[in-house]
Amino acid sequence: MLEIQQIPVLSDNYVYLIHSLERGQTAVVDPAVAAPVLDAAKRLGWRITHILNTHHHPDHVGGNLEIKAETGCRVIGPRGEGDAIPGVDERVGEGDTVTLGAASAAVIEVPGHTRGHVAYWFAADRALFCGDTLFALGCGRLFEGSAEQMWASLSKLKALPAEARVYCAHEYTQANGRFALSVEPNNPLLVARMRRVDSQRAQGRPTVPSTLGDELATNPFLRPDSPEIQRTVGVSGPDPAAVFGAVRARKDGFRG
Ligand code: ZN
Ligand code: FE
Question: Can 59 be counted among the known catalytic residues?
Fold first, then answer.
C-alpha cells in the first residue's frame, strides 16, 4: 500500500511523494525544486529515500542535488538520458523494476518528449507516474522524438488498466481541454469532463490525477480512431501515428 502526496510547485508543476507504509521508504517523483518537497516530507514525518526522475528537463530534476545532499537518498533516472540527470546513482530502462518498501514499479520507456523518457508504473497500486508523456487531456511536446515514437510510447500506456490513476507532472488540463474541444467538439464525455475541470479550477483544485479510462474517452492524443478527430485534422486511413502526429502539430500551433 502506498500513500501519495501531491505538491504543487513553480507555476504548474506537480511533484509527488510516494510513501510505502510497510518499510517507511519514501520516493520523490521529479523534484523540480527542493525546499517545498523537503518541507512536505518533514511535515508528514516521511524520510526521503529515493528520487525517481522521468526525464532530464530542469523542471523535473532541479531539486535533485539539494534533496540528495540533505537526505542521502538514491537517485534513479532513465538510462537513455546519459549524464543529464543530476546526481544519478542508478539508470533504469524498459523491463526494470524499482522497489520502494514492499511496493514496486515497472519501468516503461516512453521516448518522444525526450529521447530517454521513462514512466513508473506501480501496478498493485494502479498508479502511473508518466512525467511529461501523457497529460490530463494532453500529451508532451515532441522535443527529442518523432510522432511515430510518441505514438508507440502512448500505446504502451493505453494498454494499462483503465482504472490506472495518471499522475502527470503538470496542471495543463484546462488549456489542453480547450484544444481537445476544438478537435472533437461533439464528444459528450469530453464536454462533461471540461465542465468538471472548469469548476475544479475555479475552486483552485487540482484536476490531476485523472484515470486512464477518462483519458481514453476524452484525450484527443489517445483517440486517433475518432472519425470526428480524423475529419478535423484532415487525416484518415489505417495509420494511427499519422493521425496522432497531425493532432500534435495542430496543438503546437493552437492559440486557444
Ligand atoms: Zn519536460
Ligand atoms: Fe515538465
Answer: yes
In the reported structure, the alpha carbon of residue 154 is separated from the centroid of ligand 1 by a whole-number distance in angstroms of 15
For residue 112, give the amino acid letter: G
Distance CA 192, CA 195 (A): 5
How many other β-carbons are positioned within 10 Å of the β-carbon of residue 242? 18
Residues with CB under 5 A from ligand 1 (ion): 57, 132
DSSP H helices, the chain, are: 35-44, 58-61, 64-71, 147-158, 173-183, 188-202, 212-218, 227-233, 240-252
Q: Is the pLDDT of residue 256 over 90?
A: no
Model confidence pLDDT, tens digit, residues 147-186? 999 999 999 999 999 999 999 999 999 999 999 999 999 9
- Catalytic: which of 30, 125, 132, 214? 132
Residue 96 known to be catalytic: no
Where do the domains of the chain lie, and which CATH numbers do they carry?
A: 2-168 (3.60.15.10), 173-252 (no CATH)
Q: What is the pTM of this model?
A: 0.98
